[in-house]
Amino acid sequence: MITAVDTSVLLDVFFDDPRFGQASADALRQCLREGALQACPVVWAEVRAAFDDAATFERTLSTLGVGYAEFARETASSSGEIWQAYRRAGGKRERIMADFLIGAHAKRQCDRLLTRDAGFFRGYFGGLKIVEP
C-alpha cells in the first residue's frame, strides 16, 4: 500500500502543531506500518521550505520513511485537465495548481492520500481513498 502524504500533515508533525500534531503523527505511523509513504515534488518543495538546510530536511524525511516520487506524465496532464474544469466551473484562485498536482499524484500513482483537506480532494478526485489524521 502506497500512501501519498500531503504537506499539512508533515508540517503538523515537524512543528508539533498543538491541534493536529499528535493525530498527524499517529496517522503517519499507521500508514507507514501498512506500506510506503511518498511525497510528490510539490509536497517535497513545500516541506523543504520549512527547513534551514537540505541535509536536515533530507535526514528528517528519511527518518520518517517518506520517499520522493516524480510525477508521471499522465499525472501532470490529468492535473491540468481537472484544474481547467475547476476554473471553467467558476473555481476561484484560492485553489492553485499545486493542490491539483498533489491530488492527481495520489489518485494515479498511489493507493491513497493522507491529508487534512479531505473535502477538497474527495470533491475533485472521486474514488481517491482518503486517510484523515
CATH superfamily: 5'-nuclease
Mean pLDDT: 93
What distance separates the N and C termini?
A: 17 Å
Share of β-strand residues: 5-15%
Strand order, largest beta sheet = 3-2-1-4-5
- CATH classification class: Alpha Beta
CATH architecture classification = 3-Layer(aba) Sandwich
Low-confidence stretches: none
Tell me the major beta sheet. 5 strands, parallel
SSE ordering: EHHEHHEHHEHE
> Helix tally?
7
Fraction of residues in helices? Answer: 55-70%
Description:
The structure is a single chain. With 133 residues, the protein is of the alpha/beta class. The chain has one domain (2-131): 5'-nuclease (Rossmann fold, 3-Layer(aba) Sandwich). Helix content is 57%, strand content 12%. It has seven helices and five strands, in the order E-H-H-E-H-H-E-H-H-E-H-E. The chain has helices at 7-14, 21-33, 41-48, 54-64, 73-88, 97-109, 118-124, and strands spanning 2-5, 36-39, 66-68, 112-114, 130-131. It has a five-stranded parallel beta sheet with strand order 3-2-1-4-5, with helices on both faces. Strand 4 (112-114), helix 7 and strand 5 form a beta-alpha-beta unit. The longest helix has 16 residues, at 73-88. The protein is globular. The two termini are 17 Å apart.
